[in-house]
Amino acid sequence: VIPLLRACGNLFRGPDNLLLRLVETPNLMLRLWNLLGCGDAAVLKELCWSLANLTGGPMQICAMLVKQNFVPPLAALFNAAATT
Hints:
This protein is mainly α and 84 residues long. The protein is built from 6 helices and no strands. 14% of the residues are buried.
């Protein structure tokens, strides 16, 4: 999973038109969402890096992540990391 997330992270640094097409790919965002609950620190680190690259793109992508409820589990991850 980690090599795939690294590849996604690199793709997510691409041009805006590519990013918009990627997030419309069937099941991509669902797969990323499902990884938020995996509990594996290395996977979560790569996932957060990938999502950070993705949110550097068009504002529509950030709005989509908010709409798809990515923010609460990400906030929980950051809060958990701050207490360890």
